[in-house]
Sequence to fold (123 residues):
Amino acid sequence: MKSYTAHTKPDCPPVLLLEGWSWGAAIFGPLWLLVHRAWIPAVLFGAAVLLVMALAPPELGGLIGLGFGVLAGLLGRDAVRWSLERRGYLLVHVLAARDEESALARLLQVRSDLNASLVGQLG
Fold:
């Protein structure tokens, strides 16, 4: 089972965010954050990487890059969650499900009022 957080905003469909480690964030770092619309964390993380890499001795570059990758993998989803909150989304539920589709089905069972926002978005 995987854990998801469900975030809602009036007149918008709910957003489900998988909890835990992110391989995409670990490998792609700031680019992964940009794709997930976490603008501020992407800029701050990218600036931190560039600054530390510029100030560190060249022989430590690989180790520092690996460290930043681990940090991004651990905290990437938290940065996306923070960005959702800044855009007005509220954390409404934590769900356990096999996949995102099952998590959405569980959310709609618990919060039937969200069906209207999904129907409105689908047309």
Notes: The two ends are 32 Å apart (CA to CA). The mean pLDDT is 91. The chain has one domain: 2-122.
